[in-house]
């Protein structure tokens, strides 16, 4: 067999040595740009879920109160001891002038992710003898980095622990594979091994993977010291044992663990089959084999005596790390597992990068070119097809996470403005913490309240509801993504804010400004903007429209102009509503109509229906509307709010039901 010494000083290697030194930086920039783009559009400033306990209550509050101790870095968070994530949080908190902002953390998390991708790519490149192979791996890993399958880790900066764990593991395998086997390397492995215990609970797995690297490496290269291998074995085993002993048991997580051999095996197979969704078909089993075919063939060739370079030893260690991570996930979260959670998906993505490396290596290290090309072609085709197949659902999940963040921010802001605990009594995922009472106690803490993102502060909130900005992002294989900012508003401030803007509403390629104006308010509405009809947002109930049902009522035109579109806030059951919503809007006998495909809607957001022909109205004109659900298997909810003076007073169904004192939230879009 051929020994592919890409690290050797061969003429062919020297020709592109300068190129390969650039490509890891290209990998870093590509991964960073992709994550920054997602964070910019879909992440939010409001901290979420575990951040309230893990950061606000147990880290930042003691830090500000002067009760924090450096040993608190190593205290458990569930099963984990996330010292590196806590250090990052404290650094960002200080750099951000004591503002606790998830958006800042998400950008930093993207940087850690990009560093992980670049380091993994750089290590693997040392085993690829041709520039074309390195560029091929660069393209493949860039595709992996650019897709939003790990949307939970994109949206939450607290998830940096996953990337710190992977980064430390890559560093450890690098030292074991590419080092000289000296006492210095033993010291580095010892330091990184201890560090791995303070990334996540499964960080200790990196120590076990190092043992595999040393065993594989000793087949072809003896270390500088005869004591290297025994010392590494003992140190790594002891560190892993200490980490295992000191991993806390969480009683309420016991129900998440796999029960019995069958659940363990099924959960493991779900990990191995990523990016394909679980199935019972024969095709799923075949695809799983194809995804791991490069590894299987490589193992066979190694057992038959193939010489190994340091990059091969590194790949063996990382494959061991990935495999043990799969076992850990299958055991700890395998009960009734039907699909892999997005927070874990960066691990199988790394596995696919390793398989891509092995597929490319075998193209250059075997005389059986046809077999190697067939294996590589099947692997890349199966992987890319699986990624393409799941891309739409992953993107929808990220959009949905953003929509929930908008609602969570609104409810937290409302509570800070009113102090009414009823505001926090919301359905699951509509507030940023699972327990409303616990969230209220945290928000009532003045120190925590002072460090919340500026977006949630009372001085950024208009209790009269005079206005907000609604930024509409470009549509990309998903419904409109809207994020909201609530600046202090007044008649003068509103004029100053929008005097220099020339933006168009609901445009797929341009931002849109939405101005909320109560009826008869002395605030000018900029041309070509949305005018909202007033309502009370203190409470809401859903009015469900199924196929064939119609809701109707009347409204008053809030201003003169030409109406080009009608908008209403809808609930779409986590973006699953289908069919269409038909509209008829009339001023006397003059009517306009329109239709909107509900599959383009965003849950709990405005749904726009363009009308034809346009409708010219004067301020205060009586308008009637009819909204009919046409087709589709999943209904749509019109959110009803308490009516206020000057706004719509009721809404009715054709079957005779009338909802007095309630109204949907409507907006009219005017032409210039």
From TrEMBL:
The chain crosses the membrane at residues 25-43, 104-122, 134-151, 157-179, 186-215, 227-247, 284-301, 313-332, 344-364, 370-387. Keywords: Membrane, Transmembrane, Transmembrane helix. It comes from the Bacteria. This is Glycosyltransferase RgtA/B/C/D-like domain-containing protein. It comes from Dyella psychrodurans.
